[in-house]
Amino acid sequence: MRLGRLAALVLVLAAGCSGPSGSPARAAAHRHPPPRPASPVTAPVGQVSPAPPGTPTERGSRPINPAVDNGQQIVITPRGFEPALLIANDHQPVVWTNLSGQTQEVVFDQAGVRSGPIPPGYRFSFTAPTTASIHYHSTSGMTGAVDFNPNVP
């Protein structure tokens, strides 16, 4: 019984998909609209979680250089992102810790990634799947950049 229904369905579909010999109205009815381009990711990508107490550091107790630094940590301060340019390992999480005193959101300029709200004392982590240079901003107007590279010391 099932095989008979499947055969009938195949015949109906085949008859409806006639080639150029079908009527123009019928052919137009079977055209599919062109596929839509993929929309950028606007949902939070990564993870927002409570930050441990204290100011993040790189490799033990070394403070983060506010201008340019190697590592995986970015601090959101009332003055801006520190470091303003981070050189990070790809395939490892970069962590933005919000110590600004107000809720922030990290938005990547070209990639369509948004952290979602990061309350004070919380952090956002993101892992780049490949080598990339990403410029980002906060919804409060601060800007920064991350260069994801393999084998950063």
Topology of this protein?
Layout: H1 2-16, H2 24-29, E1 47-50, E2 68-70, E3 73-77, E4 80-82, E5 85-89, E6 93-98, E7 106-108, E8 122-127, E9 132-138, E10 143-149
Parallel strand pairs: 2-5, 3-6, 5-10
Antiparallel strand pairs: 1-8, 3-4, 6-8, 7-9, 9-10
Description:
The strands form two sheets. The protein has a five-stranded mixed beta sheet with strand order 1-8-6-3-4, with no helix packed on it. The chain has a five-stranded mixed beta sheet with strand order 2-5-10-9-7, with no helix packed on it. Strand 3 and strand 4 form a beta hairpin. The chain contains two helices and ten strands; from the N terminus they run H-H-E-E-E-E-E-E-E-E-E-E. The protein is of the alpha/beta class and 153 residues long. It folds into two domains: 1-32; 47-149, Cupredoxins -  blue copper proteins (Immunoglobulin-like). It has helices spanning 2-16, 24-29, and strands at 47-50, 68-70, 73-77, 80-82, 85-89, 93-98, 106-108, 122-127, 132-138, 143-149.
